[in-house]
Write a structure and sequence with these properties.
The chain contains 7 helices and 6 strands, in the order E-E-H-E-H-E-E-E-H-H-H-H-H. The protein is an alpha+beta fold. It has a 5-stranded mixed barrel. The protein has 2 domains: 121 residues, Archaeosine Trna-guanine Transglycosylase, Chain: A, domain 4; 71 residues.
Protein backbone atom coordinates (compact mmCIF):
# COMPACT_ATOMS: atom_id res chain seq x y z
CA UNK A 1 0.00 0.00 0.00
CA UNK A 2 2.99 2.31 -0.23
CA UNK A 3 2.40 2.97 -3.92
CA UNK A 4 -0.16 5.52 -5.00
CA UNK A 5 -1.42 3.17 -7.73
CA UNK A 6 -2.79 0.86 -5.03
CA UNK A 7 -5.18 3.46 -3.63
CA UNK A 8 -8.78 2.80 -4.72
CA UNK A 9 -10.93 5.38 -6.49
CA UNK A 10 -13.93 4.64 -4.28
CA UNK A 11 -13.68 4.23 -0.52
CA UNK A 12 -16.15 3.42 2.25
CA UNK A 13 -16.60 6.45 4.48
CA UNK A 14 -16.67 6.49 8.28
CA UNK A 15 -17.84 9.99 9.39
CA UNK A 16 -16.84 10.24 13.04
CA UNK A 17 -16.75 13.65 14.76
CA UNK A 18 -13.49 14.34 16.56
CA UNK A 19 -11.73 11.18 15.32
CA UNK A 20 -8.59 12.20 13.47
CA UNK A 21 -6.42 9.92 11.37
CA UNK A 22 -3.16 11.20 9.89
CA UNK A 23 -0.73 9.61 7.42
CA UNK A 24 1.71 7.15 9.01
CA UNK A 25 -0.24 7.24 12.28
CA UNK A 26 -2.39 4.58 13.93
CA UNK A 27 -5.98 5.02 15.08
CA UNK A 28 -7.74 2.43 17.27
CA UNK A 29 -11.50 2.18 16.75
CA UNK A 30 -14.35 0.33 18.40
CA UNK A 31 -16.89 -0.77 15.77
CA UNK A 32 -20.36 -1.75 16.94
CA UNK A 33 -23.05 -0.07 14.78
CA UNK A 34 -24.52 -2.59 12.28
CA UNK A 35 -23.82 -0.40 9.22
CA UNK A 36 -20.16 -0.02 10.17
CA UNK A 37 -19.85 -3.71 11.01
CA UNK A 38 -21.03 -4.32 7.43
CA UNK A 39 -18.50 -1.76 6.18
CA UNK A 40 -15.71 -3.53 8.04
CA UNK A 41 -16.73 -6.95 6.76
CA UNK A 42 -16.74 -5.63 3.18
CA UNK A 43 -13.41 -3.82 3.59
CA UNK A 44 -11.74 -6.96 4.90
CA UNK A 45 -12.75 -8.77 1.71
CA UNK A 46 -10.75 -6.33 -0.45
CA UNK A 47 -7.01 -6.36 -1.14
CA UNK A 48 -6.57 -2.79 0.07
CA UNK A 49 -8.61 -3.08 3.32
CA UNK A 50 -9.10 0.71 3.18
CA UNK A 51 -11.58 2.82 5.15
CA UNK A 52 -11.87 6.58 4.75
CA UNK A 53 -12.10 8.58 7.98
CA UNK A 54 -13.74 11.99 7.61
CA UNK A 55 -15.25 14.73 9.76
CA UNK A 56 -18.95 15.52 9.35
CA UNK A 57 -19.56 19.12 8.25
CA UNK A 58 -22.65 20.58 9.93
CA UNK A 59 -22.59 23.72 7.79
CA UNK A 60 -22.52 21.72 4.55
CA UNK A 61 -25.42 19.60 5.81
CA UNK A 62 -27.52 22.69 6.57
CA UNK A 63 -26.81 24.04 3.09
CA UNK A 64 -28.05 20.86 1.45
CA UNK A 65 -24.64 19.31 0.79
CA UNK A 66 -23.39 15.84 1.60
CA UNK A 67 -22.69 16.81 5.20
CA UNK A 68 -19.02 15.86 4.95
CA UNK A 69 -15.83 17.86 4.85
CA UNK A 70 -14.11 17.65 1.49
CA UNK A 71 -10.84 16.22 2.84
CA UNK A 72 -10.42 13.01 4.83
CA UNK A 73 -7.71 10.42 5.42
CA UNK A 74 -7.72 6.80 4.33
CA UNK A 75 -6.48 4.09 6.63
CA UNK A 76 -5.65 0.45 6.07
CA UNK A 77 -6.99 -2.08 8.56
CA UNK A 78 -3.85 -3.56 10.11
CA UNK A 79 -5.31 -5.21 13.23
CA UNK A 80 -8.75 -6.40 14.19
CA UNK A 81 -10.33 -8.63 16.79
CA UNK A 82 -13.94 -9.66 17.33
CA UNK A 83 -15.63 -9.71 20.71
CA UNK A 84 -18.05 -12.42 21.79
CA UNK A 85 -21.04 -10.16 21.11
CA UNK A 86 -19.97 -9.41 17.52
CA UNK A 87 -18.23 -6.06 17.94
CA UNK A 88 -14.79 -5.30 16.52
CA UNK A 89 -11.70 -3.60 17.86
CA UNK A 90 -9.61 -2.45 14.90
CA UNK A 91 -6.53 -0.37 14.17
CA UNK A 92 -6.21 1.80 11.08
CA UNK A 93 -2.82 2.80 9.71
CA UNK A 94 -3.01 6.19 7.99
CA UNK A 95 -2.10 6.00 4.30
CA UNK A 96 -3.00 9.25 2.58
CA UNK A 97 -5.44 12.11 2.67
CA UNK A 98 -8.02 12.33 -0.07
CA UNK A 99 -10.47 14.82 -1.50
CA UNK A 100 -14.13 13.82 -1.85
CA UNK A 101 -15.38 14.14 -5.41
CA UNK A 102 -18.95 12.97 -4.87
CA UNK A 103 -20.93 10.41 -2.92
CA UNK A 104 -21.74 7.11 -4.62
CA UNK A 105 -25.31 5.88 -4.67
CA UNK A 106 -25.67 2.23 -3.84
CA UNK A 107 -27.22 -0.45 -1.71
CA UNK A 108 -24.69 -0.58 1.11
CA UNK A 109 -25.88 0.54 4.56
CA UNK A 110 -22.76 2.72 4.87
CA UNK A 111 -21.67 5.65 2.73
CA UNK A 112 -19.13 5.47 -0.08
CA UNK A 113 -17.41 8.25 -2.00
CA UNK A 114 -15.39 8.61 -5.17
CA UNK A 115 -12.20 10.35 -4.12
CA UNK A 116 -9.10 11.97 -5.56
CA UNK A 117 -5.62 11.46 -4.13
CA UNK A 118 -4.11 14.30 -6.16
CA UNK A 119 -2.17 16.85 -4.16
CA UNK A 120 -1.38 14.45 -1.32
CA UNK A 121 1.56 12.60 -2.82
CA UNK A 122 3.76 13.61 0.13
CA UNK A 123 1.56 11.51 2.42
CA UNK A 124 2.90 8.36 0.79
CA UNK A 125 6.53 9.27 1.39
CA UNK A 126 8.78 8.82 4.39
CA UNK A 127 8.59 10.44 7.80
CA UNK A 128 8.36 14.24 7.64
CA UNK A 129 10.61 16.48 9.73
CA UNK A 130 9.92 19.93 11.18
CA UNK A 131 13.13 21.89 10.80
CA UNK A 132 11.83 24.89 12.78
CA UNK A 133 10.65 22.80 15.73
CA UNK A 134 11.71 24.18 19.12
CA UNK A 135 11.06 21.05 21.16
CA UNK A 136 11.82 22.57 24.57
CA UNK A 137 9.43 25.47 24.05
CA UNK A 138 6.77 23.11 22.71
CA UNK A 139 7.07 20.71 25.64
CA UNK A 140 6.96 23.58 28.12
CA UNK A 141 3.66 24.72 26.58
CA UNK A 142 2.37 21.15 26.58
CA UNK A 143 3.34 20.76 30.25
CA UNK A 144 1.25 23.81 31.16
CA UNK A 145 -1.67 22.40 29.16
CA UNK A 146 -1.47 19.00 30.87
CA UNK A 147 -1.22 20.62 34.28
CA UNK A 148 -4.24 22.84 33.59
CA UNK A 149 -6.25 19.80 32.48
CA UNK A 150 -5.07 17.49 35.24
CA UNK A 151 -3.48 15.12 32.71
CA UNK A 152 -0.38 13.00 33.04
CA UNK A 153 2.07 11.95 30.35
CA UNK A 154 5.13 9.80 29.76
CA UNK A 155 7.56 12.69 29.35
CA UNK A 156 10.52 10.45 28.54
CA UNK A 157 8.62 9.04 25.56
CA UNK A 158 7.49 12.48 24.44
CA UNK A 159 11.04 13.84 24.59
CA UNK A 160 12.44 10.93 22.57
CA UNK A 161 9.69 10.72 19.92
CA UNK A 162 10.57 12.01 16.47
CA UNK A 163 8.95 15.23 15.30
CA UNK A 164 6.19 13.66 13.22
CA UNK A 165 5.21 11.02 15.76
CA UNK A 166 5.03 13.59 18.55
CA UNK A 167 3.05 16.23 16.65
CA UNK A 168 0.69 13.83 14.90
CA UNK A 169 0.01 11.75 18.01
CA UNK A 170 -0.90 14.82 20.03
CA UNK A 171 -3.03 16.15 17.19
CA UNK A 172 -4.99 12.90 17.22
CA UNK A 173 -5.19 12.36 20.99
CA UNK A 174 -5.87 15.79 22.43
CA UNK A 175 -9.53 16.70 22.64
CA UNK A 176 -10.34 19.56 20.27
CA UNK A 177 -13.51 20.55 18.43
CA UNK A 178 -14.15 18.70 15.13
CA UNK A 179 -13.44 21.85 13.11
CA UNK A 180 -10.08 22.17 14.87
CA UNK A 181 -9.32 18.53 14.09
CA UNK A 182 -10.12 19.29 10.45
CA UNK A 183 -7.65 22.17 10.46
CA UNK A 184 -4.96 19.84 11.81
CA UNK A 185 -5.77 17.31 9.09
CA UNK A 186 -5.63 19.85 6.28
CA UNK A 187 -2.32 21.40 7.37
CA UNK A 188 -0.10 21.26 4.27
CA UNK A 189 3.09 20.42 6.20
CA UNK A 190 4.21 19.10 9.55
CA UNK A 191 5.45 22.59 10.46
CA UNK A 192 2.02 24.07 9.75
CA UNK A 193 0.33 21.31 11.75
CA UNK A 194 2.63 21.99 14.69
CA UNK A 195 1.88 25.73 14.51
CA UNK A 196 -1.86 24.97 14.41
CA UNK A 197 -1.53 22.58 17.35
CA UNK A 198 0.33 25.17 19.42
CA UNK A 199 -2.33 27.76 18.61
CA UNK A 200 -5.08 25.41 19.79
CA UNK A 201 -3.22 24.54 22.99
CA UNK A 202 -2.54 28.19 23.78
CA UNK A 203 -6.17 29.06 23.07
CA UNK A 204 -7.28 26.35 25.50
CA UNK A 205 -4.86 27.67 28.12
CA UNK A 206 -6.46 31.11 27.81
CA UNK A 207 -9.80 29.52 28.65
CA UNK A 208 -11.12 29.13 25.14
CA UNK A 209 -11.29 25.34 24.98
CA UNK A 210 -13.20 22.58 26.71
CA UNK A 211 -11.80 19.78 28.80
CA UNK A 212 -9.02 17.80 27.19
CA UNK A 213 -8.29 14.13 27.61
CA UNK A 214 -5.38 11.88 26.85
CA UNK A 215 -5.94 8.15 26.42
Amino acid sequence: MSRRIDLPGTVPIFPLPGALLLPRSRLPLHIFEPRYLAMLDDALKTDSRVIGMIQPDRLAAREGGCGLHRIGCAGRITQFSETEDGRYMITLFGLSRFRVLHEVDGFTPYRRCDVSWDGFERDLGGTEADEAFNRKRFLDTLDRYFEARGLSADWATLKDADDELLINSLSMLLEFEPEDKQALLEAPSLETRRETLVTLIEYALRGGGGEGTMQ
